[in-house]
Design brief:
By secondary structure, the chain is an alpha/beta fold. It has one domain: Rossmann fold, CATH 3.40.50.970. Strands 2-1-3-4-6-5-7 form a seven-stranded mixed beta sheet, sandwiched between helices. Strand 5, helix 7 and strand 6 form a beta-alpha-beta unit. Helix 1 crosses helix 7 and helix 3 packs across helix 4. The longest helix has 17 residues. It starts with about 25 loop residues before the first helix and ends with a helix.
Length: about 260
């Protein structure tokens, strides 16, 4: 008797991938799909894909999807969720999209406490458009627009989105995970489950940042890229929970109940 112990999630379509060899978007896709299945959310899930490598996410997920302008996925997700609060709404964004042109969108969505889930893939570079420097590109890291490496004295330091958003007073769930090594994958899935569960409970805004790889634009083999993410990215983009909805409010800030 043959028993199947590992199969494709129902929330993931059986189609060829356009992602480069060694890219960790595929791992992240599968984790999202598994969580949607396990929480029975697929039939009411709506994803929002912006511009970047994630622009074709709607080809892979077996749920409703909408396409947003560059950086505007949180704004579109806000509109969908406020119109249909019964839906499970998530965005799937890269670092060039979310932390550059979409910086204002994500900060204000988090500050308003929109009940959406944001999946943020950080591979420290613009992937789809040719490997330009992103807001998350590391100091001295080379890119097509900084061939001698990011000069922090001229460009400034890489932006750490989890640290920025966790400083907002509004309750939220902010966590950074990694999928470049197998040990990080189960923890990433737990974070996703928490984020979608918080949305179902109407508790808070959630953002899960995935430290990821881009072997093609980094000019590395998949193995070297995975190792480089561990040795260079994670020391700067530290993993862990930065904020949960159960954290106490900052001094001087009252809850809405306290204001009544």
């Amino acid at each position: 008797m043959v028993q199947t112990i590992f199969s494709r999630p129902e929330s993931l379509r059986d189609v060829p991938t356009h992602y480069c060899p060694g890219c960790t978007h595929g791992v992240t896709h599968r984790l999202v799909a598994e969580v949607l299945d396990e929480l029975n959310l697929r039939e009411k899930a709506v994803g929002v894909a912006p511009v970047g490598c994630s622009v074709l996410a709607y080809n892979y997920f077996n749920c409703d999807f909408a396409e947003a302008a560059h950086g505007r996925a949180p704004a579109m997700a806000t509109g969908i969720k406020r119109t249909r609060p019964d839906l499970t709404v998530f965005t799937y964004q890269g670092d060039g999209d979310l932390a550059s042109i979409g910086m204002a969108e994500i900060v204000h969505a988090a500050n308003r406490g929109e009940k959406i889930t944001v999946i943020f893939v950080n591979n420290a570079i613009y992937g789809m458009t040719g490997g330009q420097m992103a807001p998350t590109t590391l100091p001295n890291q080379r890119a097509t627009t900084c061939p001698f490496g990011r000069d922090v004295s001229h460009i400034g330091y890489p932006i750490r989105m989890c640290e920025i958003l966790s400083e907002l007073a509004t309750p939220s769930y902010i966590v950074r995970v990694n999928v470049n090594q197998p040990a990080g994958v189960p923890k990433a899935k737990i974070a996703l489950r928490n984020a979608f569960r918080y949305q179902e409970e109407e508790r808070c805004f959630s953002l899960i940042e995935f430290v990821s790889t881009c072997p093609t634009n980094w000019g590395m083999s998949p193995k070297k890229a995975a190792d480089w993410a561990s040795s260079d990215m994670i020391p700067y983009y530290k993993l862990g929970e930065f904020k949960t909805p159960d954290d106490p409010l900052p001094d001087g800030v009252r809850s809405s109940e306290g204001d009544k």
